[in-house]
Amino acid sequence: MAGSFREFLHRVREHGELYEIVRPTDLRNIAALVPSSEKALLFSNLRGYSMPLVSGLFLSRDRMAIALGVPYAKIEEKLRRAMDHPVEPKLIKNAPVKEVVLAKEKVDLYQLPVPIFSVMDGGPMITGAVVIAEDPEYGLNAGMYRLMLKERDVTGIDIVTPNNLRRYAERALSAKKPLPISISIGAHPCEMIASAFKAPLGTNELTYAGGLRGEPVALAAGETIPVPCIADAEIVLEGEIIPEGWTQPEGPFGEFNRLMGGLHYNPRVKIHAIMHRRDPTYYALHMPWENIWLSAPIYEAAAWRVLREAGVSATAINVTPGGCCHWHVIAAIKKQPGDGKNAIAALLSIADIKHVVVTDDDIDIFDPLDVEWAIATRVQADRDVLIISNARSKPLDPSLSPTEGIPTTAKMGIDATIPENVPRERYNRIVYVNEGKVNLKDYIGQGPREAGAVARVADEVSLQALAEKILRALSESHRFFGEILGLFPEEEYGNIARAIAILNEAEKIAQGKEGMYQVRSPAWNS
After folding, report:
1. What's the order of all strands across the beta sheet hosting 355-360?
2. 3-state DSSP: the chain helix, strand, coil percent, rounded to 5?
3. How confident is the model at residue 260 (pLDDT cuts 50, 70, 90)?
4. What does the pLDDT average to over 95-118?
5. With contact defined as beta carbons under 8 Å apart, do 20 and 28 qualify?
6. Other Cβ atoms closer than 10 A to 489
7. Under a CB-based contact definition with an 8 Å cutoff, are residues 46 and 279 in contact?
């Protein structure tokens, strides 16, 4: 199903989710054009470059669904199956990415159309690459890291935060050896999503990509380094992390949190070879939106998993873009007593999650207005807000005080479920009479005034007969006023109201504590 990056691009085009820009385009305009488009953009006429560029592939849930071949709501389930049933990658010969191999003095990174994103960026940044490294003890590791172009054959690499590749680089540095890496640009989304997982040390994330594909990821042996690359990628860079430590300035860069990151000190990468297909397309993952949408399904999968393990029945999970798809989770649950607090505790155990809201399953958690309404009407702060201090944090949180080492954060959960000791009838929502049964467009426009638009008031006999019909209906079941209207759709609204008034005046009916009309019993006033 998965195929290659270019096959995915073809499917995006077939679904009408891709615009091709044929007018000459300056590379400095890419970053501003991509988020203004409802579709992904393919720039086939970049000024000064022979290679086309595509961006914005993951700026919508629809394109994420196209990437993984299932509706967006089913992506989490597919990710879970992939993690439960990983598939080892395999080496192949005659890899498509080796159709052109440029090594040594032929290496020139500035032949690639690597854009700049923000005004304050330190330089052109490779953003959408799958980086593969290998450690003698822990084996293959795949991750996604940005690389800033510094020289014709030198990049930076951002591994300033704790991660598995940093661990590999630290081990190589302690042995005073370079760490070989391959950098695959234009890999299929299965490989990119799997590489974004925070897998335990020693886990090869490409096995998760194989699980997503339902078949092994095809790898190709390195040409200048002893590390494989993704065989059907559009472009591959082969290089080594120079064993000089975290000493070279890198950045600034616009981060996933929609803010400018600071200048970091990182290692550099010496590029020994560039390999690509004969007609490659450069993929520029747009920051920050494509980055966060790639992360959303991963955190959603983690949220479903921890809730299942906590024994909480969830009906929907929303890792929100407002929380940068890293920090905020909203979960709707079928609540049993205590489940709201248990759900909060489980969700806050996910590494990067900072704020959690838990609601009942009657709340549309994809509608911010509905979520805010649940918080406003169901929460008592001293009872329903939980705060955990000194939890591990993601360093890019700008609200943290500057500190050395790994920072800690406060985590918060809001239990916006209906409290156990509050009657549920307090939360009966407004439902308009005939809601969903009438259409405004049937009433808009000018036409001749119909005679039927004049109300027809029934005579006294007819009103008495209607009142008896209503009384018989109420003897079978208690009804709200609006439900009584629904029983007699051919009767005039005003006549039904008058008939109910007759029954009220005769003390034949009354309203119960819920407001429903019912037949008045002889002992009503006793």
Report:
1. 313-319, 328-334, 355-360, 408-416, 385-392
2. 35, 25, 45
3. low
4. 93
5. no
6. 8
7. no
Instruction: Please report where in the chains the tokens 């007819």 appear, as a residue.
Output: 462
What pLDDT, on the 0 to 100 scale, is given for residue 261? 67
Amino acid letter, residue 199: A
The burial class, CB within 10 Å (0-12 / 13-18 / 19+), for 405 is exposed
- Residues with Cβ < 8 Å from 446, sequence gap 6 or more? none
Contact 58, 295 (CB under 8 A): no
Distances (CA, A) of 35 to 46, 286, 347: 18, 8, 31
Contact predicate 343/315, CB 8 Å: no
Rounded to whole angstroms, the Cα distance separating 205 from 217 reads: 11
Q: Of 494, 490, 493, 518, nearest to 504 (Cα)?
A: 518
**What is the CATH code of the structural domain delimited by 86-278?**
2.30.110.10
Q: What is the mean pLDDT of residues 372-380?
A: 94
What torsion, rounded to 10 degrees, do the Cα atoms 67, 71, 75, 78 define?
Answer: -90
Question: For the segment 71-104, what is each residue's pLDDT rounded down to a tens digit?
Answer: 887 888 888 888 889 999 999 999 999 999 999 9
Tell me the mean pLDDT in the region 386-415.
79
Which residue ranges make up each domain of the chain? 86-278, 290-422, 440-519
Fold of 440-519: Arc Repressor Mutant, subunit A (1.10.10)
> 486-516 pLDDT, tens per residue?
899 888 888 888 988 899 888 899 998 888 8
* Nearby residues of 198 by Cβ (< 8 Å), 6 or more positions away: 163, 298, 351
pLDDT, position 227: 97
Residue 468 and residue 370: Cα distance in Å, rounded? 42
The pLDDT of residue 417 is above 50: yes
Nearest to 188 by CA among 368, 11, 350: 11
Quick one: pLDDT at residue 210? 94
| CA of residue 431 relative to chain centroid, distance | 31
**What average pLDDT does the structure give for the chain?**
88
CATH topology of domain 290-422: UbiD C-terminal domain-like (3.40.1670)
Instruction: Give 526's pLDDT tier (boundaries 50, 70, 90).
Output: very low
Which among 237, 260, 264, 261 is positioned nearest to 250, based on CA atoms? 264
Encoded tokens for 92: 């192949």
Q: Is 420 helix (H, G, I), strand (E, B) or coil?
A: coil
Cis peptide before 288 (omega within 30 of 0): yes
For residue 441, the SS3 value is helix
DSSP string, 144-184: E--EEEEETTEEE----SS-HHHHHHHHHHHTT--EEEEEE
**% of the chain with per-residue pLDDT over 70:** 91
Q: Is the separation of the CB atoms in 34 and 59 below 8 Å?
A: yes
Spatial neighbors of 435 by CB under 8 A, at least 6 apart, are none
